[in-house]
Design brief:
The chain has 515 residues and is an alpha/beta fold. The protein has 15 helices and 21 strands. Strands 1-2-3-4-5 form a five-stranded mixed beta barrel. Strands 17-18-21-20-19 form a five-stranded antiparallel β-sheet, sandwiched between helices. It has a four-stranded parallel β-sheet with strand order 9-8-7-14. A hairpin with a 2-residue loop joins strand 3 and strand 4. It starts with a strand and ends with a helix.
């Protein structure tokens, strides 16, 4: 029998992924009550279909290749991965898609959980269609937080809606490795999964309408592209996709719209033509079509705001465009109508739902600030918008968002690129070098890497940094600290890198700049 249950909480959080969990945790720490509403697995996309499984798929290939680049280790290892073992380890890191551990954490933390679909019906009012068959009418005394994450874009490709294709969810949770995989999209998820599946034995073609990893400096992206080609990935850049259709044998044919037929670059197996009969992609790419057993569409994501009842509080999308929210530095949503108490803050968005940097670690950072701000406002300890770089402000979104592409080689960057700095009206310059230090030579035979610093010429501080090369992700946090701390270059000069480590590139970059 269906029942309607009325409940009151201090804070209602719609979405129990990593971001929603962090919001709820911080408000409970602040002495408030909180409920999480989730229709899928507690822990969200990152735990089960994104960060953790994709990195679990990538790491074995990187470890194997790393051993193969060091004489002495190279002779002791086999040259192929065991796909079944890789997938089993991936399953371990997703807890076999069971969320018992996450649910127990919420219970132990004092956070209530309602499984179901929730939407806003009025200011501070949320209705939930519970998966238990009950309906819940919830009232928030202080705040409703949207932590609903993001959802994949579907590009306007003829026939795509009529075929079964992978999004990143299916790609990261697949139980078998397809013989042939086509990837649409040259962004982070596309390149990571293209390399992961190539190393697991699939013949992979990657098709991108623009350049590969176009948001990153070109020399860094070129190193990643070379790594993919070395694994046999046939990369088709500046190439549109016209249509997709299913063949009689269940395979898919992707019809391309212009662009090169193949990049013609070599691979680690010694082939020199990625589109030739000798290529590992043999049979995958034929002229301006690609035939594959599976198609991964990875062409970006947008905030998941559909079906949340936002029009009931005065928030609606412009005609023909998706809804985008704007928030202050605490995550408070602008322009929400509050008929109960005019102007009283109550609706927040955190993580991907806020539409800023769609990165789990950055979303969790913002969630911590949002949760703390809600608790502080409830106690009267915060009015208005907080000052930058204080406990309740998400200032790092504007200055220092770290990002790692976990390919082999890795690509890691933080802060502004030169173009972004100049767009912001800053007088900036760059210093860049190949990574050629004693530590890199010891790390791997024929190590190839690249590093760049973006410098504010007026204040003589770092605005951004980019590193590309094997295992450079561990260099990134030092750069993040330097950018966030606005460490003067003449003080940074005294941060002596240990010898012999790859971090010595910091010294070489500062020397190149003239210190």
């Amino acid at each position: 029998m269906t029942a309607q249950l009325e409940r009151d909480f201090d804070v209602i959080v719609i979405g129990a992924g990593a971001v929603g969990e962090n919001v709820a945790d911080r408000v409970v720490r602040g002495g408030l009550t909180a409920v999480l509403i989730e229709a899928e697995l507690v822990g969200g996309e990152c735990s089960y279909w994104a960060c953790m499984p994709s990195k679990a798929l990538l790491r074995p290939g990187t470890a194997l290749h790393g051993a193969q680049t060091v004489p002495g280790a190279r002779e002791a290892v086999t040259r192929t991965l065991d796909p079944a073992a890789v997938l089993k380890r991936r399953d371990y890191f997703t807890s076999n898609w069971q969320d018992d551990g996450q649910v127990k954490w919420a219970e132990d933390t004092g956070i209530e959980l309602i499984r179901g679909h929730g939407w806003i019906t009025a200011p501070r009012q949320v209705e939930v269609a519970g998966l238990d068959g009950n309906s819940y009418a919830l009232t928030a005394r202080h705040a409703v937080v949207l932590a609903t994450g993001s959802t994949p874009n579907q590009p306007p490709v003829e026939g795509l809606q009529d075929v079964e294709y992978w999004t990143t969810r299916e790609a990261t949770s697949a139980q078998t490795v397809p013989a042939r995989l086509a990837v649409l999209g040259g962004g982070v998820a596309g390149v990571e999964l293209a390399q992961a599946y190539a190393r697991l034995g699939a013949s992979v073609t990657l098709v991108a309408r623009g350049s590969l990893l176009g948001a990153f400096p070109e020399p860094a992206a070129e190193l990643v592209a070379a790594g993919l080609r070395a694994d046999g990935v046939d990369i088709r850049l500046h190439t549109g996709t016209r249509s997709v259709h299913e063949n009689d044998d269940g395979s898919l044919t992707v019809v391309l719209d212009g662009g090169p037929q193949g990049d013609g670059k070599g691979d680690r197996k010694g082939n020199t033509d990625a589109g030739s009969a000798a290529s590992p992609a043999q049979g995958l790419a034929q002229g301006h079509t690609v035939t594959a057993d599976k198609l991964l569409v990875s062409t970006g994501r947008h905030p998941a705001l559909e079906g949340l009842g936002l029009d009931s509080v005065g928030l609606s999308a412009p005609e023909g465009k998706p809804l985008r929210l704007t928030t202050d530095s605490t995550g408070l949503v602008h322009r929400a109508t509050d008929n109960a108490v005019s102007g009283s803050p109550w609706l927040y968005a955190a993580g991907d739902a806020a539409g800023r940097a769609l990165l789990t670690h950055q979303g969790k950072y913002g969630a911590r600030a949002t949760g703390d701000a809600i608790a502080a406002r409830a106690k009267g300890e915060l009015t208005g918008e907080p000052a930058p770089w204080t406990a309740f402000a998400q200032t790092a979104y504007e200055h220092a968002v770290p990002n790692v592409v976990f390919t082999d080689p890795e690509l890691a960057n933080v802060g502004r690129t030169l173009a972004q700095a100049e767009k912001d009206g800053l007088r900036a310059s760059t210093v860049e070098l190949p990574i050629q230090v004693a530590g890199s030579s010891l790390h791997a035979e024929h190590y190839e890497g690249w590093a760049q610093l973006v410098i504010d010429e007026d204040r003589k501080v770092l605005l951004g940094a980019t590193f590309a090369g094997p295992d450079v992700a561990e260099l990134l946090h030092a750069a993040t600290i330097a950018v966030v701390g606005e460490v003067p270059l003449d003080r940074l000069w005294h941060a002596v890198p240990s010898y012999p480590t790859i971090s010595e590139v910091w010294l070489r970059l500062l020397e190149e700049y003239g210190l």
